[in-house]
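tool_call: predict_structure(chain=1)
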Amino acid sequence: MTSSTSTQLTPAKALEIAKNCEDGVPPAVTAVLERAVSELWQRIQAQPSTYVMSKEEFIVFNYYRSRFANVATAQQAVARFWNNFPEDSPDINGSHSS
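tool_result:
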């Protein structure tokens, strides 16, 4: 993957690639996902009791869920996401059961 490809790589596309990699995630894909989760975590920390993730943000955050497993702020952010997730929206791959 060239650097020009990685600059065009969205977090959603990077996540799709990462989930389908059998021989390890390419560094450019990891970089995109790390940047996305880092920026999201900064937004959550800036508004720890009010920030509500979008569906796209949640999918990236969920990919890194083990990193935040014992972090109360993260758990509260996930709960806020589910409390604001429309019930008629398509499921998010195994992330929540009602």
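agent: The longest helix spans residues 27-46. Proceeding to next step.
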